[in-house]
Amino acid sequence: MLNSRSAVGSRRVKCVMTSALALVMSCSERSATEPAMNAASFSASVAAERPVFLSEPVLMSIPTYDGSGQSVHPDVVAFGSAWHGARYWLTMTPYPKSDQHLENPSILASDDGESVRVPGGVANPVIKAPGKRKDYNSDPELVYEPQSDQLVLFHRFVEAKTNTIHVATSHDGVTWTHLRAPFWERAHNLVSPTVAPRAAAPARMWYVSAGKAGCDARSTTVMLRTATDTTGRVVDTKWAGATRTDLSIPGYNIWHIKARWIPEKTEYWMLISAFPVNGDGCKTDDLFFARSTDGQHWTAYAQPVLRHQDRAWTAATVYRSSFLYDAANDVLELWISGRGTDGTWGMGHARARFSTLLSALERNVQVSPNSRVVYTAPALQPGDLP
Known about the structure:
Layout (H helix, E strand, L loop, with lengths): L23 E2 L27 E7 L11 E13 L2 E9 L11 E5 L5 E2 L18 E10 L4 E9 L3 E9 L6 E2 L5 E3 L4 E8 L2 E9 L11 E6 L16 E2 L7 E11 L4 E10 L9 E7 L6 E3 L15 E2 L3 E5 L4 E9 L5 E9 H9 L24
Antiparallel strand pairs: 1-19, 2-23, 3-4, 4-5, 5-6, 7-8, 8-9, 9-10, 9-11, 12-13, 13-14, 14-15, 16-17, 17-18, 18-19, 20-22, 21-22, 22-23
């Protein structure tokens, strides 16, 4: 099983520079409105000496039920051998012209993680559009529960005043059963839920609390809930009351997240889509990486794994992304969503050598080579927001 591999094994660092090229920050109870360090102090002009990416981030061809081919919010479960006909099972939501009414979780399958298809018998979207036009679905999260041999699909249902976690399960990836919603928060205090199961230990769930302003929030906080089931199950469990984590990135607001438990490293890892504090809301996100041994206290790296301006298809933003870790080969596999120079949304795929990536992040070295071309984000049209 590859879907549950996550890792972290470093000691916690308290909001201090660890060297002249300080790169890591971990804070307790940081005020989200006042980054403890100026983002400029983390800049680095030197690109990584060795290429980080074994295969560069490139756009995938994604079949969407609306025919647009535009998608966001990927998440992935991988198996060592085919599970009901496929090694990889993916979820995503179509998002043409940022139309939230089409943002309904769908299911895809793949044999290699890059070439995807609609599995036989699946009628996307597996989560239907809400009845009210102003309500919408978003932020799918896909995990595998080995105790019951089923896929579990979480997503966020958004109404005017509330955000609610909804859950659906499938024993074959085709037929989905909708379960009772486990909990809700006031809008928009339940953004981008992500779940990390562990063998014989309670699963963890994190999400972003942004308040009424949502995408235009001046500050955000990452919250943590722990499952009451101690065996690792994510279905038929309650989730204990939320606690605030210390996860933060200097100069940025965290917006969308993806976490995993990496047993080979005894750590949680997280990919983070975040936008500048003094910017224009969640419209120019970059992608960051963080690690934790307990899920509460985090070490976050100031250099992005991906910068939005380095590629045409992410020129506007690098949005919610997902990953898997192959410990035997030290390979980090990435599924990346973003918005490009032409204003369209898309999903890409990449593979990176994790040890090389981590070395660059720890030395505060820019992961991506300095681009000969800096791609410019397209102008936003009325209502055309992430």
